[in-house]
Design a protein that fits this description.
By secondary structure, this protein is mainly α. The protein has helices at 13-37, 42-54, 57-82, 90-108, 113-142, 146-166, 199-218, 220-230, 232-237, 242-269, 280-290, 295-318, 325-345; strands at residues 2-7, 346-351. It has a domain at 66-292. The protein has a two-stranded antiparallel ribbon. The longest helix has 30 residues, at 113-142. It is globular, with a radius of gyration of 21 Å.
């Protein structure tokens, strides 16, 4: 007896969406069982998440605040995953975008806002893009596994950040905390009054959704990305430059993660510290798959997942649950999405 795995015929979009909905509901059911073992009422927990994230003005605005970096990162990961290239380094690319943006803000903050703010966005994008170039080069030229290199570069980026905030950039008036001085007023992203929504980055995220839709479904490059992701041998036989696609998708992904870093330091914290990201780069992986590697689907998934994060924070207060509780949702949703996706696309047969 041997196991043979065969690829199924591509399913209709409607069926794929239905399967993803079932996967999410299955994850929530599994989480409910875990809550019961923790002596927590799952219905009350889910209600607290819904209320805190979407049914109050403050919660809704905070959901949008978290949506901004998650959407940017997930859009980038969507593109690179579409080409069957695995960028696990969005977290490090976000951090590098934040680091370079901080340097620009602290050293060029005397410039007027209409100059310094575009410069911050540009610098953060280039920083994230550049951090993605290294694993791209190693994969293309030396065939090094990009999962390992992108993940390891997250750790390097974190140590670089810690070096600056504990060392040369440490604020002498910061009461001993590892953080930089506050950004000058000119170097702070504009926000909607009464909220923490830095709307320029939100507009960038929404524009990115439209641009990537056009890129993937309306251009030759997008067609090549899909062919490479569907069957790399067929793409090579068709004369598609595989190295170009890997390089292009990786730098798009890295650049968008860098923009997320700009928003976090320039629009939320107004300074750099070791906790600039609560793991957005890793959460974006879940969202990209949950959204079906489709720009609109990713946007919806990012918004719903942002609400889940805001609601998870509320659970700590309302039900005294540990902060790590939200990781249960992250893990279960990713597990069920990948499992259902596998059994949708492949069939397993036992053969003699």
């Amino acid at each position: 007896m041997r196991i043979r795995i065969r690829k199924r015929v591509v399913e209709s979009k409607r069926k794929i969406i239905l399967i993803k909905i079932i996967a999410v509901l299955s994850a929530l059911l599994a989480d409910a069982i875990i809550f019961l073992f923790m002596n927590v009422d799952p219905l009350r927990a889910y209600y607290e998440i819904l209320r805190a994230a979407f049914l109050t003005e403050y919660g809704l605005t905070e959901t949008i605040v978290k949506f901004i970096p998650l959407a940017l990162i997930s859009f980038g990961l969507m593109v690179v995953f579409k080409a069957q290239t695995w960028n696990i380094g969005a977290e490090g690319q976000l951090l590098m975008g934040a680091i370079v943006t901080t340097w620009v803000a602290l050293n060029l903050g005397f410039l007027p806002s209409y100059i310094i703010i575009p410069l911050m966005y540009f610098s953060g994008f280039i920083a994230g893009l550049s951090w993605a170039l290294i694993p791209s080069f190693l994969k293309i030229k030396l065939h090094v596994n990009e999962v390992l290199t992108t993940f390891m570069m997250n750790l390097i980026a974190q140590k670089i950040l810690e070096y600056f905030v504990y060392g040369p950039w440490r604020d002498p008036h910061g009461w001993g905390f590892p953080q930089t001085a506050m950004f000058p007023e000119n170097a702070r992203l504009p926000i909607l009054p009464g909220t923490r929504i830095h709307y320029t980055t939100l507009l960038l995220a929404l524009a990115t959704c439209f641009i990537l839709y056009v890129l993937i479904w309306k251009t030759t490059i997008g067609y090549e990305i899909k062919v490479v992701g569907g069957n790399i041998e067929a793409a090579r036989y068709a004369g598609i430059n595989i190295a170009k696609i890997v390089f292009l998708t990786m730098i798009i992904s890295g650049g968008l993660a860098g923009l997320a870093g700009v928003g976090e330091v320039g629009g939320i914290k107004f300074r750099l510290n070791p906790n600039v990201s609560p793991g957005y780069g890793y959460t974006g992986i879940v969202i990209a798959w949950l959204g079906g590697l489709n720009p609109l689907g990713v946007a919806i998934a990012a918004f719903l997942y942002s609400g889940l994060l805001v609601g998870g924070d509320a659970l700590q207060v309302a039900m005294r649950l540990p902060q790590a509780t939200i990781n249960i949702f992250n893990g279960s949703i990713l597990f069920f999405i990948l499992a259902f996706d596998f059994f949708t696309r492949y069939e397993i047969k036992l053969e003699r």
